Amino acid sequence: MTKAMKAADIKREWIVLDAEGKNFGRLLTEVATILRGKNKPYFTPNVDCGDFVIIINASKVNFTGSNKADNKLYHRHSGYFGSTKSEKFGDLLAKNPVKLYKLAVRGMLPKTTLGRTMLKKLKIYASSEHPHTAQVSRKA
């Protein structure tokens, strides 16, 4: 019989991932798996079992597709008529790569309060400098 974990029994680690030279989608599926806790033997779907993830060098990641920066659009809507705003992928990557990563990972997590708490454990930095040096326990 499989034992279901309780939130108090879970030990969280801090994992640092270097995005330099890695493919964007492959990196983010790994991040979503770690945040969800599916890489652990005691994964429980209704409990937040995941670890903290720090992504460094976020602006130096590889993307597949030759003209994705010009063709891919991200839309947002406030709820009012005519308030749809669109932003190109390339502009979003240049201005705010953190938002781009959060949008992509958010789509891979559950759309519940549990998913929102998992997303709060993701820290993204465009360069290799980050303030979490005291917490870091392993590099992946």
Characterise the protein shown here:
29% of the residues lie in helices and 16% in strands. It is built from 5 helices and 6 strands. It has helices at residues 24-36, 68-71, 89-95, 97-106, 113-119, and strands at residues 14-18, 52-56, 73-76, 85-88, 122-124, 138-139. The protein has a 4-stranded parallel sheet, with helices on one face. Strands 3-4 form a two-stranded antiparallel ribbon. Helix 1 crosses helix 4 (97-106) and helix 3 (89-95) packs across helix 4. The mean pLDDT is 89.
Topology overview:
Layout lengths: L13 E5 L5 H13 L15 E5 L11 H4 L1 E4 L8 E4 H7 L1 H10 L6 H7 L2 E3 L13 E2 L1
Parallel strand pairs: 1-2, 1-6, 2-5
Antiparallel strand pairs: 3-4
Number of helical segments?
A: 5
C-alpha termini separation: 31 Å
- Shape designation: globular
Report the radius of gyration as a whole number of Å: 17 Å
Q: What spatial order of strands do you see in the largest sheet?
A: 5-2-1-6
Structural class: alpha/beta
Low-confidence stretches: none
Overall strand count: 6
Order of helices and strands: EHEHEEHHHEE
Name the beta content range.
15-25%
Report helical residue fraction.
Answer: 25-40%
Rounded average pLDDT: 89
Largest sheet: 4 strands, parallel
Key traits:
140 residues; alpha/beta; 4-stranded parallel beta sheet; 5 helices; 6 strands
